[in-house]
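lol so apparently i was supposed to do this last week
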Amino acid sequence: MTDLGTVPKHFLSDKVEHFTESVIREMTRQAALHGAINLAQGFPDFPAPPEVKRAAVEAIGGELNQYAITWGAPNLRHAIARQMKAWQGITVNPETEITVCCGSTEAMIATLLAICNREDEVVIFEPFYENYGPDSILSGAKPVFVRLHPPEAQDGDWTFDERELRTAFHNRTKAIVLNTPNNPTGKVFTRDELELIRDLCVEFNVLAITDEIYEHITYDATEHISIASLAGMAERTVTINGLSKTYSVTGWRVGWAVAPPAITNAIRKVHDFLTVGAPAPLQEAGAGALGLPAGYYQSLASVYAERRNRIMPALEEAGFRCYRPRGAYYVMTDIGAFGFADDVACTKYLVEEVGVAAVPGSSFYNHPREGAQQVRFAFCKRPETLDRAAERLAKLRDLRKR
Ligand code: PLP
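anyway here it is w/ pyridoxal-5'-phosphate bound
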């Protein structure tokens, strides 16, 4: 631990006392420190599509180097609207319903800041992408967690209890945060589940904020459904997405929030004063990327399906019990076979002794003990990276409890 010294407590916001730095990003730093293969943070180690990179270079050469319109370059907003129509049948007005942000990360926090008052409650499925915890704290909202239960069978789905979800909704509930396809579980919410959530949102007059950044990464013919496409939801949904995962450009920091005009207006105000705007030339390149032919998306999903099928047997061989993901590019595993004290001890051993970085399961739960027997691996890496990781992980076989 770095010694940070001390400052009088009143120099700091109370809010920052309630969360830590991202464990996922810390594991990337640990990977670099120990020369480990990084299966922790979700970013590709292979090149971005050449035509997308070329478009960015051209945009810079073409002098698109000044601020874009604060809520997003028109070309990109129009491309987003076209894509939402084509993929999900959702009609969006690019002039009044889209805010382009610095990644979907900013889109999420700008949305929560725009809609939440102190003590408003936000329902979040747990395990959850770790940003949602600090996002709720920073926006003053109170997170209410609803469990996703791991499947009994390896091929089963993560499920939630309908009664538990209903109990989480009441008159202080402002929104539910959804993430489908889901990080870290790989769950893709079914139409029945989304309809149930829709019914609760309508009954309790609640917004849905849906992070669909893995929209195009699904497996085994699993269909991704946007909750905004369900009857009664367009007027109460904020759909968040971005370039990072679909086009393998996580460093570009371009994402967006799509919402009805009055909510968009509020998101735009927050976004303007948070960041002014996302990088102008990269927005222009993004507009081109969104126009790639359907074949691009098919091959994205099938390449990741191969990678999933490559890493899962290696993890199983090593002793991890894998929960088969239906979407996104992570495998959540159970480490019960090894006898580590907890997930943190396991990932410490992995990064320092085995040479593979992964993420402790506890970082996806409100109470660390809930994830103490889980570890998440990212497989958005080249096949040779996954094979090298598999060789290293094979060393773990001897550690298994007899
Ligand atoms: N949302 C989810 C569910 C993620 O897994 C990630 C990155 O891992 C992000 C958002 C971050 O997206 P962006 O790069 O657009 O900020």
